[in-house]
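2024-03-11 09:14:02 DEBUG pipeline.ingest accepted 1 chain
2024-03-11 09:14:02 DEBUG pipeline.ingest length=420
2024-03-11 09:14:03 DEBUG pipeline.predict start
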Amino acid sequence: MRAMLLSTCILVCLTLLSGCGIIMRTPTPIPGLASPTPGTPADTMPSPVIVEPETAVPPTPTFVPHPTFTPQPGAAVSQVIVLDYPQNNETVSNPLTVRGRTALMPFEATLVVRVYDAWGQLCGVAPIMTQGEYGGPATFEGSVTYGGVPGTGRVEVADISAKDGSDIAVASVAVTLAGFPGSGYVEMPAPLDQATVPTHVLARVGQPGEQVNVTLTWDDGTQFAHVVTLLAGRDGRGLATISLDWVLDPRPPHPGTQGATLYIHDLAGQMLARQPLTVLHPNDANTLGVNVYWVRHEQVTPQPIRVPRTLGIGRAALEALLWGPVPNNLEGFQTAIPLPAEVLTAANRGADWGERVRIKGLTIINGVARADFSKELLANAGGSARMTLIRQQIEQTLLQFSTVNQVIITVEGQTGMLEP
């Protein structure tokens, strides 16, 4: 009897201990410490488990998130422009496409895209329309054609203030302007420059000896063209230099002041270069009238032309003189001053000579004009008749101005260089 009671007490105790979880249960692990696996000896416990803290830095994502334009309630929203295309250091074609987003719809839903060339010149500009709601974000996509010098350039998209024309916000990326086959470009006139007719052109395109079409086309469709044989330029490429004008009788009506584009194509029609500019009407207030003196029948003869308005009108007249008359002009004008074709092939050409005659300086003091020219003015120098005509062309072009009573001509600072 006593034995049976003892057995019953032991059985009740074991049942209570089991229910309390003290025996026959796997213990609850403590963070950072290993727990033995049932049936595993204590001396063969597994390696401890390392628990990462909750503040661990997540891995860097493989994408760059774009800014979002969701303002906090009551917070003011500033204009932000994001360019989705092109991206930094991307090579772009011509025309160039731009695409992106703004935090706010701009005034009149219009942005402006600007392109800068390898020389830092503004070489393309155009408006771009946006899509969206006023007071909210907007998207945009458009294109712009550009001129200038190919290579490393820059593209900007700007929101312009209607009040003062300043930039409210700008997105800018560096790009490579692909240009045209052969990386040709128009050096003069500069991109978006104001020009008059005759229009003076210097371009580096194609190969020496090739012929190209040089065409000036107004935005209204008016145009004229000249065929030019390329010279051997200083960089080994073809060099086109010409004064462009109509050579028709009667002369067609001159278009009003407006945008225009200078195109250069090879004779197969492939584009080699282009340049956007503005051509001023002769009656435009931004032009001035001057005379340049050409040679006709062995005498110097004036031709009235218009040039863009400038304070340096004497220099502008001399610059026009150095470009030479329009080829095949109906008046029969010629020049005794060496043009690039002669400068580049002159028998006395020096290794340090350039491609054309340049003005190195012009001063007018007390009625005396001192005009200094580069050494290329002496190309194939010799012969009293030619030297006299060169002097007369320069002198008469300067003596037309009331502030000039005397002209002194120097070459690289030296006087007497145009004597026979």
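2024-03-11 09:14:41 DEBUG pipeline.report The longest helix spans residues 2-19.
2024-03-11 09:14:41 DEBUG pipeline.predict end
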